[in-house]
Amino acid sequence: MTQSNTPFWQTKSLQEMTRPEWESLCDGCAKCCLHKLIDDEGAEDAAVDTDFINDNEELHYTNVACQYLNDKKCECTVYSKRTQLVPSCVQLTQDNLEQVFYMPTSCSYRRLAEGRGLPSWHPLLNKGKKSAMHKAGMSVRGKVIFDDMVTEEQYEDFIVVWPLHDLD
Ligand code: SF4
Ligand code: SF4
Questions:
Q1: What is the DSSP letter of 67?
Q2: Is the CB of 64 within 6 Å of ligand 2?
Q3: Which of 27, 146, 164 is nearest to 102 (CA)?
Q4: Where are the domains of the chain?
Q5: Measured in Å, how far apart are the chain's first and last C-alpha atoms?
Q6: Ligand 1 atom nearest 110 alpha carbon
Q7: Which DSSP symbol is given to 92?
């Protein structure tokens, strides 16, 4: 393969990518729309809902998704208003790349930041289609309940490990 037809994610760093390139990297798995809890040894409340992690904290994923997620398409239904409607909805950008290690291990941005490349099921390697990702079980499709169905205190009952799985 020559340099000219080598895909951009193999020739550019995350910081060097154009906005459309950056946006196209997102696989649309929607794992980042799941509520996460931190297990903080020093905290009075052992596990609390979070959108940030510190070095001494352990992160747990739940299968409780944001109520504005379409769990079949794995798409946000309020994209243009998401930050007003869900203040904790923090999108990864080139300006807050240090938070990439807070993303699930299968997240494209985290994979590239760790030098692991894109997986075979990624939409960019499957004509833009998400079907290979869904088939590989790498999205949230069919696995979630919504945060308007439970209280925050109940999130602990919905801790799951599948969002931590990755597959090449
Ligand atoms: S986890 Fe990463 S790749 Fe998946 S939807 Fe979120 S930002 Fe995109
Ligand atoms: S507002 Fe949209 S992008 Fe943000 S967490 Fe909810 S469904 Fe996901």
A1: T
A2: no
A3: 164
A4: 17-164
A5: 21
A6: 2
A7: P
Cβ of residue 33 lying under 6 Å from some atom of ligand 2: yes
The ligand that comes nearest to the alpha carbon of residue 24 is 1
Residues 6+ apart with CB under 8 A from 74: 28, 29, 30, 130, 134, 139, 140, 141
Per-residue pLDDT tens over the stretch 90-146: 889 999 998 888 899 999 999 999 999 999 999 999 999 999 999 999 999 999 999
Model pLDDT for residues 58-85, shown as the tens digit of each residue: 889 999 999 999 999 999 999 999 999 9
Nearest alpha carbon, ligand 2 atom 5: 33
CA 39 to chain centre: 19
Which pair of structure tokens corresponds to residue 129? 């289609």
Which amino acid type is present at position 9?
Answer: W
Nearest to 64 by CA among 97, 100, 88: 88
Closest CA to 7 of 149, 161, 146, 112: 112
Ligand 2 center to 122 CA (angstroms):
21
Instruction: Measure 6 CA to ligand 2 centroid, in angstroms.
Output: 33
